[in-house]
TrEMBL record:
Species of origin: Pseudaquabacterium inlustre
InterPro entries: Pept_U32_collagenase, Peptidase_U32, RNA/ubiquinone_mod_enzymes
Protein name: U32 family peptidase
Ranges of residues in domain Peptidase U32 collagenase: 405-519
SUPFAM superfamilies, sorted: FMN-linked oxidoreductases
Length: 675
């Protein structure tokens, strides 16, 4: 069994099986994908049959498929979840990504378990506990710094440390956000987040003074750890995770290819340590037919968040939308057209491109180019363009001469990503030998697997030895339609015999089939970790609703590990008053330059600024921001909306008439039904 702690794994997202296959082809060592139910992205589910198709493709390259079963479950859902896990095991899935500890109390197949980001792993004690109860891989909280990751690595000696390196950021510690459920009834812990953090809020202080008006103060820029990969490797990270199970195939191709390049640079440039260095977690090498550029995909700007320390500029406060890349400047407008001067280095405009600009109120606006034609020269050289937008120019707010333009959709780029953009091949060495009956072709791949095939034929001397040798080499190395690429070709024959090309082609095909069979026969599933016995104690003896215990099996799990007081999940509706609906490392006061720590050293200010609560307002929704300055955290406080409780009560009453009624864990007796 390979040592996974010496492997670097690029872990890509997939909305469906086709995207999963594209991710593998573009260099992913593993892909995470949702099953038909119980995934934290409810609109990104896939049938078991489709997942099996992705598994077959991944395993050819030694890559893995992980399935997300990472929502919290009611008691009446546990049996369906258990049956699904067995089906996924039968489909060859390599691991489950889970949040609900109740699953560990079920009769599961010997599948590897990975701890979801929803399990909120921020401390060495929590990480060590999860390793000791049977998790083989765990994704740490995005908010951690390099020293904090190192501290966890020091305590976790068997499990793989996984970390998000790219994509959208949840502003809350994952698993500690109940705003969506409180305000809309849609639970983020059950895969249905309404993204209240992307809304615009007005921020007021205790005196009612407006500090920020209609700003997206809970909306963050997107994660980008491109510059920190080497440091993360040194800190102990071994799985590098890309966010985006809702994203399209173009995003997955582009971002996967980008990080594949960066990780390959690290692997190619490493110095062996005690004779054994790090290696990629799967086989083969990806050749790209385009230049990856993550900035061309939807993003809200880039931040490395807290990895290298707290930054002031992590928010996407002006808009949660994608402004795009700089395009140029408006030089003139007419009733039906806009003239544009392209900036230096910007590629040609095209029909269908998306143009954006900021109006005088600081709002992002956008329009699509119905047609675009050059005003000087041809499309390849023109710097001035006339654009006919798909809306009347008079209705395009504040679009006038001198306006700076951006492009958030580039049709030429989309067409590039729609084409074949990569191929992945496994290196093989080929050797042709003579036998008593003819020829023997041996293929040895980069992992040491061997496939052989024989050709029974009477060997005939060639009239033209040089040409015969070239034919032999070309025929046996012709691997273009396979997953293999020739690295070395050795002719170990006494002379370059004449052999019909058709016979050589069949010999090569038989050897390739034998090599694929050998690789399949050598495949080993990831082992299930054995929990430490007797059961290790949980780091705390009391857990609140933020631990998300929603079924009795989860309650039994924590009790078995020494927890004395176990509150039920927020979704059980036992927390009805004001509560922390979100806990976050992001601090609005800090981002608005109102943090008391920022005032230290400023004459006449030190000691006069306090971290008093602020209020967020969006429509009729009011939320209070409270600041815990010792751990440097912010709590977003609010209460569950009455309509959420009414709808939940009606749903529960309707479910009681079903064959399997709705049932979930309560830490207190259920209220008596009204008559």
């Amino acid at each position: 069994m390979r040592d996974r702690l010496r492997e670097l794994e690029l872990l890509a997202p997939a909305r469906d099986a086709d995207i999963a296959i594209a991710a593998i082809d573009h260099g992913a060592d593993a892909v995470y994908i949702g099953g038909p139910s119980f995934g934290a992205r409810e609109k990104a589910g896939n049938s078991v049959a489709d997942i099996e198709r992705a598994v077959r493709h991944a395993h050819r390259f030694g890559a893995r498929i992980f399935v997300t079963l990472n929502t919290i479950l009611r008691d009446d859902e546990l049996e369906d979840a258990r049956r699904l896990v067995w089906q996924l095991h039968g489909a060859g899935v390599d691991a489950l990504i889970v949040q609900d500890m109740g699953l560990l109390e079920l009769d599961l197949p010997p599948m590897q378990l990975h701890a979801s980001t929803q399990t909120d792993i921020r401390t060495p004690e929590k990480a060590r506990f999860l390793q000791d109860v049977g998790f083989s891989q765990m994704v740490l909280a995005r908010e951690l710094t390099l020293p904090q990751i190192q501290a966890i690595r020091a305590q976790v000696d068997r499990a793989v440390i996984e970390f998000f390196v790219h994509g959208a950021l949840c502003v809350a510690y994952s698993g500690l956000c109940n705003i969506s459920h409180a305000l809309t009834g849609r639970s983020a812990n059950r895969g249905s987040c309404s993204q209240e953090c992307r809304q615009a809020y007005t921020v007021t202080d205790a005196a009612g003074h407006i500090i920020a008006h209609d700003k997206h103060v809970l909306s963050l820029k997107d994660n980008d750890q491109s510059a920190n990969l080497r440091a993360l490797v040194d800190a102990g990270v071994r799985s590098f995770k890309i966010e985006g199970r809702y994203k399209d195939v173009g995003y997955v191709k582009n971002v996967t290819a980008h990080y594949r390049r960066l990780l390959d640079e690290i692997l190619d440039g490493q110095k062996p340590r005690d004779g054994r260095g790090l290696r990629a977690a799967s086989s083969g090498r990806t050749t790209l037919f385009f230049t990856p550029d993550p900035e061309r995909n939807f993003n809200r700007g880039a931040t490395d968040y807290f990895v290298t320390g707290r930054k002031e500029d992590i928010g996407a406060f002006d808009t949660p939308k994608y402004a795009g890349l700089p395009l140029g400047e408006v030089t003139a407008t007419g009733p039906e057209h806009v003239d544009v001067q392209l900036a230096d280095g910007v590629g040609a405009l095209a029909n269908g491109d998306g143009l954006t600009w900021w109006d005088l109120q600081g709002e992002l606006n956008g329009v699509q180019a119905n047609t675009a034609r050059p005003l000087d020269g041809d499309a390849a050289t023109a710097r001035r363009w006339r654009v006919m937008p798909n809306e009347p120019v008079a209705e395009l707010k504040d679009l006038r001469r001198g306006t700076t333009l951006y492009r958030n959709r580039e049709m030429a780029w989309d067409r590039t990503l729609d084409s074949k953009t990569a191929e992945r091949r496994i290196a093989v060495d080929l050797r042709l030998d003579e036998t008593g009956d003819g020829l023997l072709l041996t293929l040895t791949d980069e992992d040491g697997h061997v496939g052989q095939a024989e050709l029974a034929t009477a060997l005939q001397p060639a009239r033209d030895a040089a040409r015969a040798e070239a034919t032999l080499r070309e025929a046996i190395a012709k691997l273009g339609t396979t997953i293999f690429a020739a690295r070395e070709v050795e002719l170990a024959t006494t002379e370059p015999w004449f052999v019909p090309v058709g016979a050589l082609n069949q010999l090569r095909r038989d050897a390739v089939a034998a090599l694929e069979a050998a690789r399949a026969a050598a495949w080993q599933p990831l082992p299930r970790a054995v929990p430490v016995a007797p059961p290790v104690p949980y780091p705390e003896d009391t857990i609140s609703y933020l631990a998300n215990v929603y079924n009795h099996k989860a309650r039994d799990f924590y009790a078995r590990h020494g927890v004395q007081v176990i509150e039920s999940a927020y979704e059980s509706h036992e927390v009805l008053g004001e509560a922390s609906l979100m806990v976050t490392k992001h601090c609005v006061r800090f981002s608005l330059s109102l943090c008391p720590k920022q005032a230290k050293g400023v004459t006449g200010v030190q000691g006069t600024i306090r971290a008093e609560p602020l209020v967020l307002k969006h429509g009729n929704d009011l939320l209070t921001l409270r600041f815990d300055c010792k751990p440097c955290e912010m709590h977003v406080v609010g209460r569950m909306q009455p309509h959420v409780l009414r709808e939940a009560t009606a749903q529960l009453q309707a479910a009681q008439a079903q064959a399997v009624p709705m049932q979930f864990y309560r830490s207190r007796p259920a209220p008596a039904a009204r008559r």
